[in-house]
Design a protein that fits this description.
This protein is about 45% helix and about 15% strand. The chain has about 450 residues and is an alpha/beta fold. The chain folds into three domains: about 5-55 and about 150-190, no CATH class; about 60-145 and about 195-300, Rossmann fold; about 310-445, Glycogen Phosphorylase B (Rossmann fold).
Length: about 450
């Protein structure tokens, strides 16, 4: 089952099952369950090899003790030193980039008065940004998780889940009792966190008297609860676009049964880069009275454009943005066969996959390819590299939208990307190619 088929299956479930009856107290559960089903089946199962990462050994005795101490320390700081802030900003180290010798956050740094924000670190890794106020959310919530009371699913939720499972099993034979158990356990964990998470976020909102909350990639359990608490208090919740939000991104598209007053675990406002991304949200948001999509543009691009930077080479750069820890075979073939001389191939990895650079270098060298750039391609910030590039190649990265915003053409090499960015293909801002021959022909046409 490919990505499009899975999303269509989720759409069928919404049409056939009363998914909005999945509730815990007054909290909507379906958006979280929908994303978890997609994640478990697509990322962990159907496309597991693509998304696989090295496992990290953890949870030995000393790690647990260190985790308790760290959580207790951060909880103490949170309880006794949190002050008033108008704006909370949820982000993490993966959203940072080094620019002009300074580490900046791609989402908050371009916003006026960002130094006055209280930052909520959504990762367990150090934030690495020089800011005055930071809450180590993950550390504190991990500590609180040790004291949660395990809830049980009520009869209605059990019935609806079984109806959902039956719909899935009609479409794929890979969904077995083990997969059912994973979803059941996830939902139990989600609702068991409610008391502790709501205590944490309600106290945070009370202490800060915040009037606005920014999130990046809202679809995590902790941010569901932050949205839930903030929405009940009528505090503005804004999700900033961080990548592609086309018709195949399950967190942003095809919500067919949104309640009239919206889902209370989702952000109120979706701040998008372009009209196409916003329109995907408006297709479902127009049927209710709470959520809305606005086009605020790519603020990081505008910020970077205010600096004048010199391109480091006279050659034409072909930038390849990678989704995974390897270079696609079709790109290897292109590099081996392409006869154009005045070009440089630059490869940029996803911010969370920089540990895979050595593996990519090794793959290229093993294929007798030496004319590539990995260092500058991953050291300089993306808007600058795109502005230097003559052509961009990717599977389905949000970089395709970013390239278009800078008037750089893209070649899309994955059907998911072709589906997500139909508007760019129709306007000939991007081109879909399946084979190395097609890609080479398009490169020659665009660059020769």
């Amino acid at each position: 089952m490919d990505r499009e088929e899975l999303i269509e299956l989720l759409n069928d479930i919404e049409r056939e099952v009363d998914v909005n009856a999945l509730m815990f107290d007054d909290m909507h559960l379906w958006p979280a369950i929908k994303y978890r089903i997609f994640y478990n089946l697509y990322v962990n199962k159907f496309a597991r090899k693509k998304f696989s990462r090295k496992s990290i050994k953890r949870n030995n005795y000393f790690d647990k003790i260190a985790s308790y101490l760290n959580g207790g320390y951060n909880l103490f700081l949170y309880l006794f030193f949190t002050k008033k802030y108008d704006t909370l900003f949820c982000t993490n180290v993966y959203h940072n980039d080094k620019f002009q010798g300074v580490i900046r956050n791609k989402f908050s740094s371009p916003i006026i008065d960002n130094e006055k924000f209280l930052y909520i670190n959504t990762s367990n890794k150090p934030f690495d940004l020089n800011v005055k106020g930071t809450i180590q959310m993950v550390s504190i919530l991990n500590l609180l998780n040790r004291f949660r009371k395990k809830e049980v699913l009520n009869k209605i939720n059990k019935t609806i889940l079984n109806e959902i499972f039956n719909c899935i099993k009609k479409s794929t034979n890979t969904f077995d009792l083990k997969e059912e158990e994973k979803i059941n356990n996830y939902l139990i964990q989600l609702i068991s966190n409610k008391n502790n998470y709501c205590w944490f976020f309600n106290k945070l909102l009370y202490k800060t008297k915040a009037r606005c909350i920014y999130t990046v990639a809202y679809y995590t359990d902790s941010i569901y609860y932050l949205n839930y608490c903030a929405n009940k208090l009528e505090i503005e919740t804004i999700d900033l676009q961080h990548g592609g939000q086309g018709p195949l991104h399950v967190a942003y598209t095809r919500l067919n049964k949104v309640p009239l007053n919206g889902y209370n675990i989702l952000p109120k406002i979706f701040d998008c880069w372009d009209d196409y991304s916003a329109e995907e949200i408006r297709k479902w948001a127009s049927k209710q009275q709470f959520h809305q999509a606005i086009v605020g543009g790519n603020k990081w691009h505008k910020y970077i454009a205010s600096f004048n930077l010199v391109k480091p080479t006279d050659k034409k750069i072909i930038l390849v943005t990678l989704q995974f820890d390897f270079v696609d075979e079709v790109i290897i073939e292109c590099m081996q066969q392409c006869k154009l001389k005045n070009i440089e191939w630059w490869f940029r990895v996803h911010p969370t996959r920089k540990n895979g650079l050595g593996k990519i270098r090794e793959q290229l060298i093993q294929n007798n390819i030496n004319h590539f750039n990995l260092e500058e391609a991953n050291d300089a910030v993306l808007p600058v590299i795109l502005s230097w590039s003559s052509l961009h190649i990717s599977r389905y990265s949000g970089s395709i939208i970013e390239a278009d915003l800078l008037n750089i053409p893209s070649i899309i090499i994955d059907p998911v990307g072709a589906e997500n960015y139909q508007n760019l293909i129709e306007s000939q801002s991007a081109y879909y190619c399946e084979t190395s021959i097609e890609i080479i022909e398009k490169i020659s046409h665009l660059l020769d």
